[in-house]
Amino acid sequence: DVQLQASGGGLVQPGGSLRLSCAASGFTVGANTMSWYRQAPGKGREPVSTIDVNGRRADADFVKGRFTISRDNAKNTLYLQMNSLTAEDTAVYFCTKDSGLRARGRGTQVTVSS
Asked: Are the C-beta atoms of 45 and 39 separated by less than 8 Å?
């Protein structure tokens, strides 16, 4: 049974940092293309960052070097390190399995506010 569970969200001040985690089960993170998406209130889902099986990364323009997607194969977990957060980054963030049988996990709320 493929499952994804994001965690690590919370309330952070502008300029702060958070590290999101996505624990996977039922498949191997390192053998799949994985992504982080986000959805802000009243807006559609948008891709944030993607990492493929070879470790190649692709980021949305708004990331601008602030976020880094990574994975720990031993822990079968995907991460998103987010730095220099702004109010525009407020959204629910969730992870997805993009290859083979696609899957999406429950999200974690990130709120950037002073």
From this structure: yes
The answer to whether the beta carbons of residues 55 and 63 sit under 8 Å apart is no
Q: Do the bridges between strand 57-59 and strand 34-39 make them parallel or antiparallel, or are there none, so unpaired? A: unpaired
DSSP-based three-state secondary structure for 92: strand
Tens-place pLDDT, residues 63-114: 989 999 999 999 999 999 999 999 999 999 999 999 988 999 899 999 999 9
Other C-beta atoms closer than 10 Å to the C-beta of 96 total 20
The yes-or-no verdict on residue 28 having pLDDT over 90 is yes
Strand spans (E) along 1-114 = 3-7, 10-12, 18-25, 34-39, 45-51, 57-59, 67-72, 77-82, 91-97, 103-104, 108-112
Structure tokens at 72: 């720990």
